[in-house]
């Protein structure tokens, strides 16, 4: 274990040396800081970019952040947003998933002059497993209507950052299922399944609050076709970060899509609507459409 972490930190420390030959002459001008430097599967990674001189905040588009997962042929690009009005620093947030391979990945950060290549080691994480027995074919799959609405919501990338500081638990109940649990259905491992959030066990009517500030971007109901999600509230925290709160019993009639909510503001009550076997709250935290582990966001502020 000690050897392994030594090895990992060595890889991380060597990463700047792995930059292309073109940057051998001097210290890189484009500074890049990662947190954490070796994310575990399912954690998001913050990339702080400090370009040489100042780049006007409107010029974030001059920065390219691309990430190639372990074993993947293609890189994916992620947007960077200014951290301050002066344009000193920018930030991109990159999700990793329990479905991604662990191991060496490549992070590439470029401005118009320079490209930094950083080797990032995604650490293996062992998630608990559940064995589920399904009988018959079942009739309660998701409707196309709910899949489409939820997909559009998870894809939101609003330039404004609404959240501030650490995220709070959206319900005071105990955690009944942690993030990332994998499943066997009738003895067969489900390759595409992981628990995309945290479940809180609480009674009907227990308050559900916004885990962080944001804009209400989705309100919909089981009766409209939200057969799996049940009564649902989606909060856009900005910059590609969204929360989904599912299986609600009730949603305040005064709450509307487009409303701004503060952290801790009540947005519903615990229920068992949709595909749910008993009253509980499911909170999913997504970064660029990928469900990530909310726990690090509860412990440390991403600012
Ligand atoms: Zn759940």
Give descriptors for this structure.
4-stranded antiparallel β-sheet; Glucose Permease (Domain IIA); 10-stranded antiparallel β-sheet; disordered N terminus; mainly beta; 2 domains; 303 residues; binds zinc ion
Total helix count? 3
Task: List bound small molecules.
Answer: zinc ion
The total of beta strands comes to 21
* Dominant shape: globular
The amount of helix comes to: under 10%
The CATH class name of the largest domain reads Mainly Beta
CATH architectural type of the largest domain: Distorted Sandwich
- Structural class based on helices, strands and sheet pairing: mainly beta
CATH superfamily of the largest domain: Glucose Permease (Domain IIA)
Described by strand count, sense and barrel closure, the largest sheet is:
10 strands, antiparallel
**Mean pLDDT score, rounded?**
89
- The CATH topology of the largest domain, please? Glucose Permease (Domain IIA)
Number of domains: 2
């Amino acid at each position: 274990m000690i050897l392994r972490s030594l090895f990992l930190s060595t890889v991380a420390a060597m990463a700047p040396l792995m930059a292309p030959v073109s940057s051998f002459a001097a210290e890189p001008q484009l500074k890049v800081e990662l947190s954490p430097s070796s994310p575990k599967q399912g954690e998001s990674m913050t990339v702080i970019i400090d370009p040489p001189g100042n780049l006007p905040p409107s010029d974030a588009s001059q920065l390219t952040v691309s990430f190639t997962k372990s074993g993947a042929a293609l890189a994916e690009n992620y947007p960077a947003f200014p951290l301050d009005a002066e344009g000193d620093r920018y930030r991109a947030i990159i999700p990793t998933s329990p479905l991604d391979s662990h191991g060496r990945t490549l992070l590439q950060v470029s401005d118009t002059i320079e490209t930094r290549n950083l080797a990032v080691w995604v650490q293996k994480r062992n998630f608990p497993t559940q064995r589920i027995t399904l009988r018959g074919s079942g009739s309660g799959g998701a409707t196309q209507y709910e899949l489409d609405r939820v997909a559009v919501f998870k894809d939101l990338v609003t330039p404004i950052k609404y959240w501030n500081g650490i995220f709070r638990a959206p319900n005071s109940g105990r955690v009944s299922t942690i993030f990332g649990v994998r499943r066997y259905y009738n003895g067969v491992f489900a390759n595409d399944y992981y628990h995309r959030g945290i479940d809180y066990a609480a009674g009907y009517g227990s308050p559900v609050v916004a885990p962080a500030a944001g804009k209400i971007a989705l309100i919909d109901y089981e009766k409209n076709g939200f057969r799996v999600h049940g009564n649902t509230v989606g909060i856009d925290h900005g910059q590609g970060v969204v929360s989904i709160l599912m299986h609600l019993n009730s949603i305040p009639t005064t709450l509307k899509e487009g409303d701004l909510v503060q952290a801790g503001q009540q947005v519903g009550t615990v229920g068992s609507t949709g595909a749910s076997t008993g009253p509980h709250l499911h909170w999913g935290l997504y970064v660029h459409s990928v469900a990530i582990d909310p726990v690090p966001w509860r412990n440390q502020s991403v600012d």
